[in-house]
Amino acid sequence: MELVVLNTQGKETGRKVAFDESVFGIEPKQHAVYLEVKQYLAAQRQGTHKSKERSEITGSTKKLRKQKGSGGARYGDIKNPLFKGGGRVFGPRPRDYRFKLNKSLKRLAKKSVLSQKMKDNSIMVLEDVSMDAPRTKDFITILDALALNGKKSLFILPEANKNLYLSSRNLGKTKVANYNEISSYDLVHAGEIVFFEGAVEKFQENLKK
């Protein structure tokens, strides 16, 4: 399959870029996508939650009343979880939520998302852009030309481009990232995916390893 390369004015340049069927034309595996998105979100959690349990509460350990003869339930000390101010039963403790996934499954997840995006005509190719200095206004002009202003979009670079990245950083719905920094979450979260012309081949080779 092929897509036409667009210029920064949104016009066709006459050049085309080939997309590998083994990356952009497979049958999507939704469970693989679910697992990688779950892994990404789990890794974002700080895991610093903590509540005090019975042994960590400051208070007397004296038994509040004798064991028998009161006609009521047995009481322990004031740190009993049943009392106000007592320790919490099985409260949250600091933990690491990250978990491991095989590289082959993560590649399958990316291929699945890209194949679905290709079916939905949500992928386009833009000619390589260079900026002498960061300028958000110039980047917004490109978004307007591609009819992406105000839409969630992901721009995939063939190599690090600091000026282009800084020009887009203040735009909440637009993300610019290098081809080897993309996760399935980024692909799913983006409504439209824009490959810079030089990034297509590198991205495909990265998924074939």
Describe the structure.
One of its GO terms (biological process) is translation. Pfam families: Ribosomal_L4 (PF00573). Residues 45-80 are annotated as: Disordered. The chain has 209 residues and is α/β, with parallel strands linked by helices. The protein has two domains: 2-28 and 101-208, Ribosomal Protein L4, Chain: A; 57-89, no CATH class. Helix content is 33%, strand content 15%. It has seven helices and six strands, in the order ββαααβαβαβαβα. A six-stranded mixed sheet has the order 2-1-3-6-4-5. Helix 2 (30-44) crosses helix 3 (103-119) and helix 4 (136-145) packs across helix 5. The longest helix has 17 residues, at 103-119.
Relevant terms:
33% helix, 6-stranded mixed sheet, 7 helices, alpha/beta, 209 residues, 6 strands, Ribosomal Protein L4, Chain: A
Short description:
Residues 45-80 are annotated as: Disordered. 33% of the residues lie in helices and 15% in strands. The protein has 209 residues and is of the alpha/beta class.
What is the helix/strand order?
Answer: EEHHHEHEHEHEH
Determine the fraction of residues in helical runs and give it as a percent range: 25-40%
**CATH homologous superfamily grouping of the largest domain:** Ribosomal protein L4/L1
Number of domains: 2
As an assembly, this protein is single chain
By CATH, the architecture of the largest domain is named 3-Layer(aba) Sandwich
CATH topology of the largest domain: Ribosomal Protein L4, Chain: A
Count all strands and give the number: 6
**Looking across the biggest beta sheet, what order are the strands in?**
2-1-3-6-4-5
Shape: elongated
If you compute it from the alpha carbons, what radius of gyration comes out, rounded to the nearest whole angstrom?
Answer: 27 Å
Low-pLDDT runs: none
Put simply, the count of helices is 7
Structural class: alpha/beta
Please tell me the overall pLDDT.
Answer: 92
- What's the CATH class of the largest domain, please? Alpha Beta
Taking the alpha carbons of the first and last residues, their distance comes to 21 Å
Strand content: 5-15%
